[in-house]
């Protein structure tokens, strides 16, 4: 989704906003990764499992995919390290990756991802996109709704929804939207111009 009202659209799907018209129907279990990640006052591992049964291979695959392996190696007690108010403080990027790992571990049917790569550097973001969100990632067979400011991810998604003034103005593949020469194409052009002016 590109444009205004992205996070609001996710809130509407989650039933957190009063809808004025229309219907929202969600079939299956939903996992939400908010833009502002949160952690509980418990171990890193408990934050990821979130009450679910520990499955060693699944857990380690998710740790790797969410780029948490290095963090576990430097934390005093690895994944048993207490985090939150009672434990160590984590960076925004670490919290974001733990939040994403928690949602992936939940094995939901639908994933609502509100700019989950915004707090990580580009190298880590690419790893997470490829290993979790993208067409070959852990969630490849799940429904993923990705809200992002990272236009470089857009060629790799199945469908793009352009939200303008709180309404869907366009939807289609990256190539289709470029060829339509509508809001999406104009947005990309202004982004490219802005990036060129800043270089």
UniProtKB/TrEMBL annotation:
Keywords: ATP-binding, Membrane, Nucleotide-binding, Repeat, Transmembrane, Transmembrane helix, Transport
GO cellular component, one term: endomembrane system
Pfam families: ABC_tran (PF00005)
Protein name as annotated: ABC transporter domain-containing protein
Cell compartment(s), UniProt: Endomembrane system
Transmembrane segments: none
Molecular function in Gene Ontology: ATP binding; ATP hydrolysis activity; ATPase-coupled transmembrane transporter activity
Membrane topology: Multi-pass membrane protein
Keyword Nucleotide-binding: yes
ABC transporter domain location: 2-190
CDD domains in the cross-refs: ABCC_MRP_domain1 (cd03250)
Primary location recorded for the protein, binned into one broad class: membrane
InterPro entries, sorted: ABC_transporter-like_ATP-bd, ABC_transporter-like_CS, ABC_transporter_C-like, P-loop_NTPase
Family annotation (PROSITE patterns): ABC_TRANSPORTER_1, ABC_TRANSPORTER_2
Gene3D superfamilies: P-loop containing nucleotide triphosphate hydrolases
